[in-house]
Amino acid sequence: MSAAATFDDVRELYQEIILDHGRHPRNHRRLDRPDGRADGDNPMCGDRISVEVERDAGLRLKDIGFQARGCAICIASGSLMTELCRGHTAEEVHALAACVRELARTGTAPAAEGWMAEALERLAPLSGVAAFPSRVKCATLAWHTLEAALGPGGKVSTE
Description:
Elements: H1 3-23, E1 36-42, E2 47-55, E3 61-69, H2 72-85, H3 90-106, H4 114-122, H5 136-150, E4 154-157
Parallel strand pairs: 1-4
Antiparallel strand pairs: 1-2, 2-3
Helix pairs in contact: 1-2, 2-5, 3-5
């Protein structure tokens, strides 16, 4: 197999993952007992997202849900986020969110170990937005909104 075929195969797989999560988002729901909530808006693209979190006694994310209207990239990013952040602390989520922003902006994930390395591998499909700077905000809106939900809540805007 040539290098070009391998690159095309990976790009196609990444597109399939984005489309799957965009069409069939995981955890696209409201929570029964959230203890944190925030709303995000990307006025340039029209993406809107709400993220709700519920923490356990040890302050780990016990549950996370989101509701979104917008492009496949925004919805897929939110879907992947909910799968990867459950069970982690706010500090761990903030660290992963910073890595996601770098991945989306540069197309390359920073070096990581353990669960974060595995999470970044699953988030690799978002690396393609680096070639389209206007789409970086689509890929990162869910993460900014989750960080707000873990703090005082409120509204987040990409502008």
